Amino acid sequence: MKGGASSSTRRRLVPYALLGPGLVWLLLFFVVPMYFMGEVALRSGTLETGFQFNWEFSNFSDALSRYDENFIRSFIYAGVSTVLALAIGYPLAYFIAFRGGRWKNALLFVVVAPFFTTYLIRTIGWTTILSDDSVVVDVAGSLGILDLFQTLGFTDTDNRLLATPVAVIAGITYNFLPFMILPLYASLERIDQSMIEAAKDLYSSARQAFLKVTLPLSAPGIVAGTLLTFIPAAGDYVNVIFLGSGNQSMVGNAIQSLYLNLRDYPTAAALSFMLMAVIFAIVVVYIRFAGSEALMGDEEEAT
Amino acid sequence: MSGAWKWLRRNAIAIYAAIAIAYMLVPIAVIGVFSFNDPAGKFNYTWQGLSFDSWADPFAVEGLNSAMVTSLQLAALSTVVSTILGTLVALALVRHQFLGRRAANLLIVIPMATPEVVIGAALLSLFVTYNFALGFTSLLIAHVMFSISFVVVVVRSRLIGFDRSLEEAARDLGANSFQTFRLVTLPLLTPGIIGASLLAFALSIDDFVISNFNAGQTETFPLWVFGASQRGIPVQVYVLATMLFAVTVFAMAFTVWQQRRAERMAAMAPEREDDPYATTAAMPPAPGAAGG
Q: From B83, which residue of chain A is nearest by alpha-carbon distance?
């Protein structure tokens, strides 16, 4: 050990030395790219003549008027998928947390199992499940479900599921379901069972105990789960490629084809920028409304 | 009638959970089953007949193998880099009080809350602006970038439940700070670090969207599958996907088994204070550390 002053300076520098490499990586390859995306969004020109930066704000309004439908569709699909994932995930997470017993770990494992097959391939698996001569389409057809979907305006045919919004939403819901279930489980698992017993001792019915104790205590999980599902769902384009058609094109599809096929970088960058802005606005409003513990919460304080 | 109704009411949630579980597993089962398909045409979408050909020769498709090798190399490198960087960041965030800690926390959270398509597009904007050649290097940069945050979160959750008195004990017994770190802190952190690196590996090998933007001509496994999906996916893709699934399941089961064994050892030797696993077992396994 050296003298007091130099050793305390050194101690103060330790956290920065630890943070340094990781945060520099994130700054260089996450924050700086965001800046360049904003800059590219304000360029004008074509691929042939080259793109020049000249504060071309019209890129944003042009992109929005060309792709407004994609935008609306993305948020509707993401919203519906998030609600469905919550409806499927909450009872499952509840069951695993409170009734799982010694099967708890095995059940949790099943929840994350989809992650162990490649994202693309499990989406392709859905293509098989929903294909035109599949069992699902047969059964749904003979039960009148396909007719119902058409009557309700979910699809525009009465004999298939592929290339309809139903298939796209089913795929998105499936793909992001683990992101919903894991935070729900984590918050439910943490609930002290004696609180629920106390509610019952004080003559609340099972339903009241759930609504007044369990549900509020699992709120952080609901907030985290819905955000972790909604955000990737809104930016997704893979499910549309495999399960949908041009008529279901989402904003992600527009960004992907503008960047990679049409090479219209300014419009693509403007669209990505707006997608991110809208999502951030939604997240901020949602967290204001629901409280921030869910995301930063108890992991915030250090020693 | 009322008996059946009662039974149904009592078990409603179990039945619901069973259906949800089936929903989660069906696509995986379909992939496994269709790896034994004998497709008539180029598209492996309808069941034609049982065949073991693809399993007998899983590496028969040429481009697929090199894509798989690229994916494995990329995942290995990106796991090593992101696990080291992320663990250091987690140590700083949990152990130290410093100016800018909130900002650093935010910088870790925001990439996880950003849609992949935006991350991919932004990185491509950077690379295009500087005429940076797209390929393995740009992929590695991207994969390390999106893995760091997840590593930090997993290791941090391990560090928060950490019994610091063990480190104090080591110091009282004359260990210097490096020895304390190497002999006490690191072994106790190992399960968290292993969990984090498994997650980083899985994220990398699974990534399609960000790679789609930044790969140039380089093909990873998902990118190859995407290209092939236009012209027909060979059954071998299903075979490799099933293998990958089996290997990951095995790795997961192995870590869980190890943890259980450590717990049992700790339970059998309650007085042994110097057993580093004793505290490991006393802590509940971090949610999320299991992957996902």
A: A22
Q: Residue A41 domain-assigned?
A: no
Residue B143 to residue B79: CA distance in whole angstroms: 9
User: In A, which residues are within 8 Å of B192 by CB distance?
Assistant: none
Instruction: Give the CATH number for residue A162.
Output: 1.10.3720.10
Query: Is A185 within 8 Å of B287 when comparing Cβ atoms?
Result: yes
Q: pLDDT digits over A235-283, tens only?
A: 999 999 999 888 889 999 999 998 888 888 899 999 999 999 999 898 8
In chain B, residues with a C-beta closer than 8 Å to the C-beta of A12 are 98
DSSP string, A6-70: HHHHHHHHHHHHHHHHHHHHHIIIIIHHHHHHHHHHTEEEETTTEEEES--THHHHHHHHHHHHH
**What's the pTM value of the predicted model, to 2 decimals?**
0.84
Chain B positions touching A256 (Cβ under 8 A) are: 117, 212-213
What number of C-beta contacts closer than 8 Å exist between A and B?
Answer: 265
Give me the number of domains chain A comprises.
1
Q: All domains of chain B, ordered by start, with CATH?
A: 61-238 (1.10.3720.10)
Contacts A116 to B, Cβ<8 Å: 202, 244-245, 248-249, 252
Whole-number Cα distances in Å, B282 to A109, B162, B164, B165, B265 = 22, 10, 14, 14, 12
- Segment A92-126, tens digit of pLDDT: 999 988 888 788 888 888 888 887 788 888 898 89
Nearest-neighbour CA in chain A from B67: distance (Å): 14
Nearest-by-Cβ selection for A122 from B27, B116, B144: B27
Q: How is residue A282 written in tokens? A: 């939604």
**Contact flag B292-A89 (C-beta cutoff 8 Å):** no
Range of the domain at A225: 67-299
Q: Is residue A39 part of a domain?
A: no
- Asked if the structure places residue A43 within a domain, the reply is no
Which candidate from A31, A125, A272 shows the least CB-CB separation from B30? Answer: A125
Q: Determine contact, residues A174/A114, Cβ cutoff 8 Å.
A: yes
Is the residue at A123 inside a domain? yes
Strand partners, A45: A51
End-to-end CA distance of chain A: 24
